[in-house]
Design goal:
Elements lengths: L11 H34 L6 H47 L1 H7 L1 H43 L1 H56 L2 H54 L4 H25 L3 H14 L19 E10 L5 E10 L3 E5 L6 H9 L6 E6 L2 E3 L5 H4 L2 E4 L8 E2 H5 L8 H10 L3 H6 L7 E2 L8 H14 L5 E5 L7 H14 L4 E6 L10 E6 L2 E6 L1 H7 L2 H10 L3
Helix pairs in contact: 1-2, 1-4, 1-7, 2-4, 2-8, 4-5, 4-7, 4-8, 5-6, 5-7, 5-8, 6-7, 12-14, 14-15
């Protein structure tokens, strides 16, 4: 019922040893607390004066026990925070390494849930599991030994009742786990459905399908609600059952001890001590059972995160490449790609040299983005050969190639950070003067003037809202500051902008493309004349390639595409 991989995390052995030591001390303090209190009551019952030393011993044991609990919680908070932070870092590294391939396989909503909420649940899972499991393994054993010396028959009752409680906990726990697994799976589907709905809401409205699609969202949320209620029902049932059996066990011991006191077969001191220790004996397993249901989502999230981190990636090429120069050559021979369940990129060849702007044009769904992902190394081709700077490779997933890339998608990410930190993301050591120059070059002067704290104003999610054009300008400013990267990849960067904003951005973007190898995917015609070389895509096939004049002279698919985009017959 506990994931063994949890104890394979870095530092798990160290924190386990520390917690085990604290639990041993806590068990002895519990015994000392019970014995001192029982002795004080026994002496008072016998008519003797208050034994202040025993009372102080009780207070000392109680106080030290609380301090040990506080220390244990602090250690666990620190360890769980470190471990979950490392898991998040590893997960993000895996996501960046596999790129769109992982996103397409798992779903955007599912990955966002794992990175944001999932890691938080794992943090709580680590804290609860380590604290409860270690306590349950150590404290009852030491208390049982103490009870054994105080009264043998009471110890036997405790020993017989414990396995029954564990058995019920396992049965109910397995039932809760089965429903929690279904709930977690449904939550991931709901997350993906929600993200997809947000992305396509404009299209759904345009097609008049938004109300019909809302029924699908309602059904998904209702299924998730029903799963959640089933888990809660089992959790409440198991908590009641465990409380009932532990209370019954303590009641049996209390009745037995009461009869023993009446019959004179047991003295008051051991009877009181056993009666005080009995609830402490069952307390660890009750706490574990009560928190077990709270950890089910954390356990599922932990398994999912570990699975994603261990997701096998396509083999990368370890080539020694230098910064792209004007005389470097790049050629592709019969590269192809096929999605496991979807479209494909048919075999194509390409030869490029030095600094030039390569336009990739085609209708939506023609394969432009897939081609961009192949060239950037986010996707591994299923066939073909690549030659770059004289080195042969089977994929563009080359670390030295990735270091040269500046990638600007349709919706650049704006971090929740200051304007300065967002623009200097790739070059954190640049001066404020250089940042302001980049702001001026990309036309963000008006934004800077409007910000109350200038460069120190925090922008991003939940802060200063930016338009799509402003977000693109921030991405361009990052590119302007990073002059060391000589390869730029644009994936329809102006697709969601109005034509006025796009034309203004175009004036800012073209100078940044000089002395660089640029791949520019677009379906906007006014960019095409600015490209040195053009790749024409149609249904996953590179149907034509060449300069603008060469393609017009052919009077083939490129010419037909141009007419269709202009609305000509």
């Amino acid at each position: 019922m506990i994931d063994k991989e949890l104890f394979q995390l870095a530092g798990s052995r160290s924190i386990s040893r520390k917690l085990a030591g604290l639990d041993v001390l806590q068990a002895f303090l519990i015994i000392g607390q019970a014995l001192s209190m029982s002795m004080v009551i026994t002496k008072l019952w016998d008519g003797k004066a208050m034994d202040w030393m025993l009372l102080l011993a009780f207070i000392a044991c109680f106080t030290l026990r609380q301090l040990l609990t506080l220390l244990s919680n602090n250690w666990l908070d620190e360890y769980a925070g470190t471990a979950s932070l490392e898991l998040r870092r590893n997960l993000l590294e895996k996501m960046f390494k596999l790129g769109p391939a992982l996103v397409q396989k798992q779903g955007t909503g599912s990955l966002i849930t794992m990175v944001v909420d999932g890691i938080g649940e794992v943090d709580e899972y680590i804290k609860l599991t380590f604290s409860k499991v270690m306590t349950m393994m150590i404290v009852p054993v030491i208390i049982f030994i103490a009870t054994f010396f105080l009264d043998l028959r009471s110890a036997i009752i405790l020993l017989l009742m414990y396995p029954l409680i564990v058995l019920f906990m396992i049965i109910l726990g397995l039932a809760a786990q089965a429903n929690a697994d279904k709930q977690f799976s449904n939550f991931q589907k709901l997350s993906n459905n929600f993200i997809d709905s947000l992305r396509g809401i404009d299209t759904l409205k345009y097609l008049g399908l938004s109300k019909r699609y809302s029924t699908s969202i309602f059904n998904s949320s209702e299924t998730f609600r029903e799963r959640t209620m089933k888990v809660l029902k089992i959790a409440m049932l198991s908590t009641f059952a465990l409380d009932f059996f532990t209370t019954l066990s303590i009641a049996v011991i209390a009745v037995y001890l009461g009869l023993g006191l009446i019959n004179g077969t047991i003295d008051l001191f051991p009877a009181l001590a056993v009666l005080v220790l009995a609830p402490e004996y069952f307390l660890p397993i009750r706490n574990f059972a009560g928190d077990y249901h709270a950890t089910l989502n954390g356990k599922n999230a932990f398994k999912k995160v570990r699975k994603l981190i261990n997701e096998p990636g396509e083999p990368s090429e370890d080539l020694s490449l230098h910064a792209w120069q004007d005389d470097d050559e790049f050629s592709i021979d019969q590269m192809q790609f096929k999605y496991p369940n979807g479209s494909d990129i048919k075999p194509f060849s390409l030869d490029l040299k030095g600094y030039q702007k390569v336009g990739i044009i085609g209708m939506s769904g023609s394969g432009k983005t897939t081609l961009i992902n192949l060239l950037s190394g986010f996707l591994a081709p299923t066939g073909g050969k690549i030659t770059i700077q004289g080195h042969e490779a089977s994929t563009m997933d080359i670390p030295e190639w990735r270091k040269q890339l500046l990638y600007i998608p349709q919706n650049p990410y704006v971090f929740t950070a200051t304007l300065r930190e967002n623009i200097a993301f790739y070059t954190p050591n640049v001066s404020d003067e250089q940042v302001k120059k980049a702001i001026h070059v990309v036309g963000l002067d008006d934004l800077l003037e409007d910000l109350p704290e200038g460069l120190d104003t925090v922008i991003g999610n939940g802060r200063r809202v930016l338009s799509g054009g402003q977000a693109q300008r921030i991405a361009l400013a990052r590119a302007f500051l990073d002059s060391g990267r000589r390869v730029m990849i644009f994936d329809e960067p102006t697709a969601h902008l109005d034509i006025e904003t796009e034309l203004d951005l175009k004036k800012r973007m073209l100078p940044l493309m000089e002395n660089r190898l640029v791949f520019f995917a677009t379906h906007r015609l006014h960019w095409i004349k600015q490209m040195d070389y053009i790749l024409v895509m149609n249904h996953g096939e590179l149907v034509e390639q060449g300069t603008y004049d060469e393609l017009l002279a052919k009077d083939g698919y490129f010419t037909k595409l141009m007419k269709e985009m202009r609305g000509e017959k």
